[in-house]
Amino acid sequence: MNRGRPTRTLFEPSSLVRRFASRIADAAAGKPVIDVACGSGRNAILLSQLGCTVICVDKDLSPLQTQQRRVCRTSFRGALARLTLHQMDLVKDPWPFGVCTLGGIICIHFLLPTLFPFFENSLSPGGYLLLGTVPACGGNYLQLPKEGELRTTLSKAFNLEFYKEGKVGPRGYDAVTVQLLAKRRE
Q1: Of 22, 32, 163, 171, which sits most exposed with the smallest number of CB within 10 A?
Q2: Domain 15-184 grouped into CATH 3.40.50.150
Q3: How far apart are CA 74 and CA 88, in angstroms?
Q4: Distance, CA of 95 to CA of 104 (rounded, Å)
């Protein structure tokens, strides 16, 4: 039973992606946008509806493939046609995207800082990186960055246009959730 909480639609993107999707799509300038750890594709579909070609990367693409089968005859059909699926283990497999080949990168609820140099290398100047860490649920704080860590790491190659941290975890533990929008320097 729904007690006053809004019902999520099948493809409801994260609020962070909704907030910045148009800016990311405009800056991509025809280059593909990558959705890192895309899951069911809810964020990729919004960007594809805005005209972007979106490369959906995940270790397991079956949730996205299931969604594609469910909606192949709906109004989402056109958006699904602009999705390219790329199965890879982001921890173990080599990064397959070349220098300045991407117009944007979204990475929601997945944080692997060892990917940051690859993001920097593959993102075209003027393109955006949109990142949102996992929320602070249960023991998630153990995998979250320290206060200021992402700001320091990314500010070397990016202009941070939006940056929000939220302190999480037990008292005395240095962990934060982070939401950020960073533009690759020219």
Answers
A1: 171
A2: yes
A3: 28
A4: 16
